[in-house]
């Protein structure tokens, strides 16, 4: 059984399940802030870790992420552990959201939320990770910093994505939504905006089911 971290009311009609990014655990400051903010809107938030990150927590030794089949299988196991996809919106930070997007249709999730989607590896914009996003059937929200080095606004607006995918921009945000000082914005402002976008998206799913 995968260890799960819960925030928000047990009886919430919808649950947001979040996986972490490649380099930070499920209780990183970013993940803690998102979970606390979204759960304040009467949404249950569940977090988990992939096997390599759980091992790092036990051994205090860093390691590379698990291979894609392991990451995908872990997602499917967590969904089963939570009783199936009914009422679940899945997603996560960077890599966690990317893997969720790869299994969302297969799993039958109600929705998908990606926080800083890695559209390409660092410094390699030619290696796009969008093929499955062109045919995605699951309603999806990608919250992206406008100057994200893994997919900026100038880059992403040129990609062909499924009409089920909505990309919402965090102004001047980087891959973790942090703005530059010259922007006049603060990280807290950007995090609050991201939380509002996610909460609003989930509320919309609750009202309309899977229709967008």
What topology does this entry show?
Layout lengths: L3 E4 L7 E5 L9 H11 L4 E5 L2 H9 L8 H14 L6 E6 L1 H13 L3 E5 L24 E6 L7 H4 L8 E6 L16 H22 L4
Parallel strand pairs: 2-3, 2-4, 4-5, 5-6, 6-7
Antiparallel strand pairs: 1-3
Helix pairs in contact: 1-6, 3-4
Tell me what you see in this structure.
With 212 residues, the chain is of the alpha/beta class. It has one domain (4-208): Alpha/Beta hydrolase fold, catalytic domain (Rossmann fold, 3-Layer(aba) Sandwich), CATH 3.40.50.1820. The protein has helices spanning 29-39, 51-59, 68-81, 95-107, 153-156, 187-208; strands spanning 4-7, 15-19, 44-48, 88-93, 111-115, 140-145, 165-170. Helix 5 links the parallel strand 6 and strand 7 (165-170). The longest helix is centred in the C-terminal third of the chain and has 22 residues, at 187-208.
Overview features:
17% strand; 7-stranded mixed beta sheet; Rossmann fold; 212 residues
Question: Short description, anyone?
Answer:
The chain has one domain: 3-Layer(aba) Sandwich (Rossmann fold), CATH 3.40.50. The chain contains six helices and seven strands.
Uncertain spans? none
Given the helix and strand composition, which structural class is it? Answer: alpha/beta
- Second rung of CATH, namely the architecture: 3-Layer(aba) Sandwich
Strand content: 15-25%
Following the backbone from N to C, one meets helices and strands in this order, namely EEHEHHEHEEHEH
Amino- and carboxy-terminal Cα gap: 34 Å
The CATH top-level class label: Alpha Beta
